[in-house]
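User: Can you recover a sequence for this backbone? Please restate the input before giving your answer.

Assistant: Of course. Working from this structure:
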C-alpha cells in the first residue's frame, strides 16, 4: 500500500480510535486487497463495490484525510494541564485517552 492510500484504507477498514466505522465486514486485509486492485476508494466504488455505503465511505475518507495547509497560531509554552485534557477527552468520549490523562494528573 502506498502512503497516499492511507486515507482510503482508513475509510474502508475503519479506525476505532477515531470512531470511523468503515465498510461493513471489511478488515485490514480486505481493505488492502481492494486498494491493490482498484487503487482508491473512489475507483472501488466505481467498480460497483459498497453501493449502499458509498456516501458514508466518502465521508469517512474526508474525515481520514489530514489537512496539512492550515495556518495555526503560535502556542505559548506552558506546563501541561493533564486534568483539563482528561476532562476534554472525556467530553469527546475518548475514554481511553481520558483515563491515561487522569493518571498523569494524579501522578503530579
Amino acid at each position: 500500500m502506498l502512503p497516499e492510500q492511507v486515507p482510503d484504507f482508513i475509510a474502508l477498514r475503519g479506525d476505532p480510535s477515531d470512531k470511523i466505522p468503515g465498510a461493513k465486514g471489511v478488515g485490514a486485509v480486505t481493505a488492502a486487497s481492494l486498494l491493490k486492485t482498484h487503487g482508491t476508494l473512489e475507483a472501488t466504488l466505481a467498480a460497483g463495490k459498497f453501493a449502499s455505503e458509498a456516501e458514508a465511505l466518502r465521508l469517512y475518507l474526508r474525515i481520514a484525510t489530514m489537512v496539512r495547509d492550515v495556518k495555526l497560531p503560535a502556542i505559548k509554552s506552558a506546563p501541561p494541564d493533564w486534568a483539563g485534557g482528561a476532562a476534554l477527552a472525556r467530553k469527546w468520549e475518548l475514554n481511553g485517552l481520558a483515563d491515561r490523562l487522569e493518571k498523569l494528573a494524579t501522578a503530579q
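That completes the design. Residues 8 and 40 are 6 Å apart (CA to CA).
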